[in-house]
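Cont'd.
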Amino acid sequence: MKSKRFLVSLALTLALLVSVLAPVGVVFAAPDANVTVTADPTYICIENTPNTWNLDSTGIEVDTIYYANPLGAETAPSATVVDAECRFTVTCCTGADTVDLTVTSGAFTGGSADMTNSDSDGSNGATTYGGFCWYSGMTYSAKVVMKSTGSSEMYSTGLAASATLKWGAEIETRTDAWGGGGASTATMTITATEH
Amino acid sequence: MKKRYIGIGIGTLLLLALLVCSCIGSTASTPRPTPAPAPISVVDGGEPPIEEGQTWISPGKVQVGNFYPGARAEWPLTVHNGNDHTTTFEVSYRYPDSVGEGYTKPTSEVQDWVRVADTTPILSRYGTREIMVILEMPEDAVSPGHKWEFWVSVKDTSQGGLVRIELCSRWLVIMR
């Protein structure tokens, strides 16, 4: 009889124990939650045309600003940039996700007019050039500095699928003279990331 | 006698509670290895919505949660070659030019935590390939912040001309 009561008491105790500890277990398990990794099947895709820009077909000079402006290599865009003043057109592919755009510009090398990006506030200097980029519809004075790395976003409001954006750039050549006449080349990169 | 049984019951209850709690406590303080997430198919439900002849990557954003020193996270980055010729791509860790609101830029150490399974994949014309990207934080490493971001860059190395295109996948990491 005594052992029966003891067993009943033990069973009740265990049942109580389980009911009390089950939620405690949940609470304790939370800090040990596994790493989560998620991603949506979004697509990043842009096209840009043209992919060339000759600063000035007649040759460039020191300490001069050259614009990727179809209206003139030394013609600055209007206070509010218009399409006609932009050499490049970037398109976000149909079916792709909305993207933000950043432009970087590396060193001019391989010729006589070699110069590196000043990577500062867009100003030029001895052996260094300054660069900016801008797009149609923006206030030109708000143009964005083009650095070799770490430029701010040129377009951060999101270019949607199938939409296009006209944009341009400018380079202010180095302040000190160069010798010879060999052309130097550089690479500008337009980077697309999900908005 | 009844009091004795109740006393035995309560004693057993306390003893078992102590044992179970100590087990749970030790489990909570020991990081578990990160299970490999089930990769999604980027062509889930059919063909990608991008026209053939255009180079794209997917996904555009990977979100990592509950991350901690010693943990590992991985996700396949899909790269599609939109060229009508075989093309070599360059896939690499990328220090972000900008980060999402509330996120910080990575420290220089982070580049050592990111591995790309194939950094120079060669894709046939209109070919598509999944390339595993692995984020593995050393146990003794210090996080750049509670929320931080890095990018994975993809470039078509056959691009010519002055202006090149770079497509980046954003990795947004939130620490535990």
